[in-house]
Amino acid sequence: MRVLATIPFTLLRMVRSYIVLLLLLAMPILLLTVFAFILKGAVTETGEPYLYQTAITMVLTFQLFGGSIVMSYIQTDFFSEFRARIFALPFNRTMYAFSIMMCGTVYSILMGLILMAYTQFVLGVAWTNWLWAIYILSLMSILSSVVYLIITFAVKSFKTAERLSVLYGVSFVTLAGLFFPMPDNAFFRFMGSYGNPLALSVEAVLNMSRSNSGGAWFQANLLLAVTVVLFALMLLVGRRRMA
Amino acid sequence: MTIFHFALKRSFGNRANLLFLTLFPIACIFLPSGEGWPFLPYGYQYFGIFILFASIRLAAIMLEDRAKGVVKRLAVAPVSHLRYISQNLLAYLCIMVVQCAVVVIGGLLYGQQLYQPAWLMLLYISFSAASLAVALAWISLYRNKEISFLVFMPIVFLVAILGGIMMPVDIFPEGLRRLAVVFPTYWLAKGLDWIAFGESIGPFLLVNGVLWLYAVVFVIMGSARKIE
Asked: Which of A55, A125, B87, B117 is deepest in the core (most CB within 10 A)?
């Protein structure tokens, strides 16, 4: 397992990319801080602070973009600058690609955890069930990596792939109705609830904290199923592209 | 006006740019109206954010010039720096004006409730000028196009929220409400409120004046010639 020896360096590479840190960590922290000031003391009819929902949504929203780091590393290592070097190395390339994906996913989960800790200890948001939230967070992170990789493998031009990946994040945020309310018809109702990973995961966390564990498990399992199916698809397109 | 001509050509030569610059304004026309807030339809409330993004994309062409050494060649050519800056900016402003016109006229044709479309157009143009100036000042800090854009993105969201475009300033606590005045987006939001409710022209002219003041200040900040 020579691939194992590369993992510390992959992680180091990720931690040092300050743009990713800025976009996926500093920006949500700033936004959450601003929201905490604005929403101070505001509660819903059921007595839940508004900030709680905002925090859940924000943490999970940024997971939608977490796959970008995996995408860019796979691109540089396998399809552009480092391609010749990586192909000359005596190790299992599939495992190496896999390790990059795992590192990126873990890194993204870690940033989500930092955000959760920040909201809990600095802004005073009570995450009722940490374990459940982390489980959902991980699902979202894996899903995002898988989707980003499918896009990377399926599209020839990397520029287009990058744009598509941003579209994936932004369109689901929009469809969840976070920017403005969506029109009220069957299609948009579906895309704002069960057809939307972001809405699913937010509802799953909320349902669990409202002690509706049946609903929460249902939503989480839906997410899991989608992830498994897309993972298989990723393996398929990946094999074609790598060959 | 050779530089002006080529700045226009370059902005439209890039296919992604063209798509971005035409699709989004058209999408803005069809966004729904909110209940209670915002007073104008969402597309018109959020158009300011689009203007900010569009202006950084346009201004990035000048950043490319600097990175590729075009500015250096221009420095020895018989073209003054003032000309280079002003004709580029004028070209970008023309593009922005066309987009504002598309959004406003399209909205009228589609039947959106725009209250005072002519003044809305003026407000968008003033804000475009201010945001182009901000973009010019912003790119003067960077050497890399991608990084300048990526760092600009979160700042746009923050400024949009703190300025009161994404949510009304009235619900902010005292401190943030005072701070909001600093951002150009606050004046845009104020102008949009005036479009819906305003009667006497005075406050609206003040809003536009402030936006043009921003434009002047940021152009001065961003127009220094940098040769790397």
From this structure: A55
Q: Is B88 contained in some domain? A: yes
- Tell whether A163 is within 8 A of chain B (Cβ): yes
Full residue range of the structural domain in which residue B130 is found: 2-222
Amino acid at residue number A76: T
| Residue B228 lies inside a defined structural domain of this protein | no
> Which candidate, B108, B127, B133, B105, places its Cα nearest to that of B191?
B127
Q: Which of A98, A24, A71 has its CA nearest to residue A165?
A: A71
Residues of B within 8 A of A34 (CB-CB) are 158, 161-162, 176
The SS3 call for residue A43 is strand
Contacts of B27 in chain A (CB under 8 A): none
CB-CB contact of A155 with A241 (8 Å)? no
Query: pLDDT for B55-113, tens place per residue?
Result: 998 998 899 888 898 888 988 999 899 999 999 999 999 999 999 999 999 999 998 88
Interchain contact, B158 vs A40, CB within 8 Å: no
Number of domains into which chain B is organized: 1
Nearest Cβ partner of B42 from A27, A30, A180? A180
Choose among A71, A236, A62: nearest CA to A159. A71
pTM assigned to the model: 0.87
Nearest-CA distance B83 → chain A (Å): 33
DSSP-assigned letter for residue A77: I
- ipTM metric: 0.80
